[in-house]
Amino acid sequence: MIRAACVQLCASDDVAANIRSVSALIRDAHGQGATFIATPENTNLMAPDSGTKLAKTFAEDADPALPAFRGLAAELGIWLLIGSLAIKVSETKTANRSFLIAPDGAIAARYDKIHLYDVDLANGERYRESRTVAGGAKAVTADLPFGRIGLTVCYDLRFPQLYRDLAQAGAFLLTIPAAFTATTGKAHWHVLLRARAIENGAFVLAPAQTGTHPGGRATFGHSLIVSPWGEILAEAGTEPGVIVADVDPAAAVAARAQIPSLRHDRDYVLRHLAEGSVSAETSRQED
Q: What is the pLDDT of residues 236-262, one digit of tens each?
């Protein structure tokens, strides 16, 4: 059993201010007994536009946020998942990179967001993450003293096959740091997170951005910790803060025993029937 925490943040385009704000919230979570703490997507920067983002980001070895968080994890003796930092990988693109930091301050795992958010919303909001972000290509799990976890970021949430693969690889806890829009969050956030937990018999830890950010972008908040049975163990509202819940790997084992769907996956072939055609199997059933 461990106590896990989600940090909910309203990040700005001031990197130093974001580091200070999230560090204070991490200390708060630690003060509530959390030994595994996760922060949202874009922890270091919510920029108003792509040009500002590129101007305020750095290569990993020069990024000012990463050593600050590594030092904090070592000071507090905690496992710290920095949901993502914008890390410059070329003159025109960053990686949306999640960092798992061990209690000694070492980087235990990195994950680059695979699925990139390109969309035109009905309310006029338009996002083209792929223009300035280099997508990842590798799913990532990491072994911690209390069990194996699977790392993802935000829009990955809409691709259930990724979470199935992580669960099949032994992950009992799925991290889903996010900066969900207010529009899509209101419609889909809770149901998708609960679905990923239920269908994989896994805990879900989903720290989120909240509020209005530079450029007018509004994020949904409502950070969640969800049990393998789909129960919401802790939920934030729309203000920055911290939520905590106890996470027991045995609960994932029990859920997977009760609904052993991870053992029942099968390969299959998709059959497409042209309009008006009827399969032989259907014809026999109708006779």
A: 999 999 999 999 999 999 999 999 999
